[in-house]
Specification:
Helices cover 70% and strands 0% of the residues. It has 350 residues and is mainly alpha-helical. It has a domain at 73-197. The longest helix is centred in the middle third of the chain and has 28 residues, at 200-227. It is globular and about 55 Å long. The N and C termini lie far apart (48 Å). It comes from Alkalibacterium gilvum. This is V/A-type H+-transporting ATPase subunit C. GO terms for molecular function: proton-transporting ATPase activity, rotational mechanism. InterPro entries: ATPase_csu/dsu_sf, ATPase_V0-cplx_csu/dsu, V-ATPase_V0D/AC39_subunit, V-type_ATPase_csu/dsu_dom_3.
């Protein structure tokens, strides 16, 4: 058993400093009163968490999509800071956590291969350099991808090549097929890697966070596919994350086999998540539960075990939430929403 206090003392202090640079409620309220993208950029330039990525931006000539890309790159910047500061054991966890970022980056280049969107500046040079050095992804080859065959070939030598190559057997695979394949592979890999890279003490923390996340995502997936696509149970089952935490195989089967949404809710209220879902009756409420319960578990673990992977996970999760809020506000400003409406959208009041 390792001494987590001594192991994590330095990086926990570093994280506390980074946490102090996250935006507070007062600042979100101030941003809600801004009336232009120019004012939005000027405001964030004064904040330590964004001064570096926005320093060369001319706020008088910037597109919203480009700005959203820069905001997203702030997450990768902070991930890199933690990775460079972390010791060997902490880097093992960051490598597992970073699989989510790798897949997000791959999806961006995948959409360009499908001729759906451009990349803009969302993937920073520093993060692409991290991919080159730590993931066996050829970032340079990815940047040159224009077609699906090129996308697949760019993944040679990485762990993502084989799952993507298996789609060759599917007739005209869609973007959904590719993204689902990447997501399922990522979730499975994340769960498997914990056994190889984490100590027993941290494995329990990891399982509480990721296990709950995967259970709730599977519940949401089943609901969506039943409610909006009317897919048969056997097809839905192939789209689920192949990981169980507090949901048993029998409960998953019962949710899949529920003849209607009323039966779905009845089965769900018989699981270990019953106390959280008793008053729910819609998909929107399910997604809100996912966000709220995950936040609660992450914060609880960080509070109870501050000298552990929980503190790293908590910071990155909070930074991602911050970017989501800023992106939401930016979109609202773009569409001329007023301060009160923006505050309602982000769930904050003056």
């Amino acid at each position: 058993m390792i001494d987590l206090l001594n192991e994590y003392k330095a990086i926990t202090t570093k994280i506390r400093g980074m946490h102090g640079k996250l935006l507070k409620k007062k600042e979100y309220i101030e941003i809600s009163h801004l009336d232009s993208i120019r004012a939005f950029v000027s405001y964030l330039k004064q904040k330590p968490g964004y001064s570096t990525i926005l320093k060369d931006v001319d706020e008088n000539h910037i597109y919203r999509s480009y700005l959203e890309g820069l905001l997203n790159s702030a997450v990768y910047e902070d991930f890199n800071k933690l990775y460079h500061f972390a010791n060997f054991r902490q880097r093992n966890f960051l490598k597992i956590y970073g699989i989510n970022y790798e897949v997000n980056v791959l999806k961006k280049f995948l959409r360009r291969a499908f001729d759906i969107s451009e990349i803009y500046e969302e993937v920073s040079e520093e993060y692409l350099d991290y991919l080159n050095r730590h993931s066996n992804i050829n970032a340079k080859a990815l940047e040159e991808v224009k077609t699906l065959p090129e996308f697949r070939e760019s993944l040679k030598g990485s762990m993502y090549y084989q799952p993507i190559k298996q789609l060759d057997s599917v007739e005209k695979p869609s973007l959904f097929d590719y993204e689902t394949t990447l997501d399922t592979f990522a979730f499975t890999t994340i769960w498997r890697e914990k056994n190889k890279l984490l100590e027993k003490d941290e494995e329990k923390i990891f399982e509480r966070i990721y296990g709950t996340k995967f259970d709730l995502l599977n519940i949401i997936f089943i609901y969506r596919y039943k409610r909006y696509y009317n897919l048969p149970p056997e097809q839905i089952n192939t789209l689920l994350i192949p990981v169980n935490y507090r949901l048993s195989d029998n409960e998953i089967s019962a949710l899949l086999s529920a003849e209607d949404l009323e039966a779905f809710w009845r089965v769900l209220r018989g699981t270990k998540y019953a106390k959280y879902v008793n008053d729910l009756d819609s998909g929107l409420e399910l997604e809100k539960l996912y966000e709220d319960l995950l936040d609660k578990i992450i914060q609880s673990n960080a509070k109870n075990d501050p000298y552990s992977i929980a503190s790293i996970y908590n910071y990155l999760h909070d930074k991602e939430d911050e970017i989501d809020l800023l992106t939401t506000i930016l979109e609202a400003i773009h569409y001329d929403r007023g301060p009160l409406e923006i505050q309602k959208i982000i769930g904050m009041k003056e």
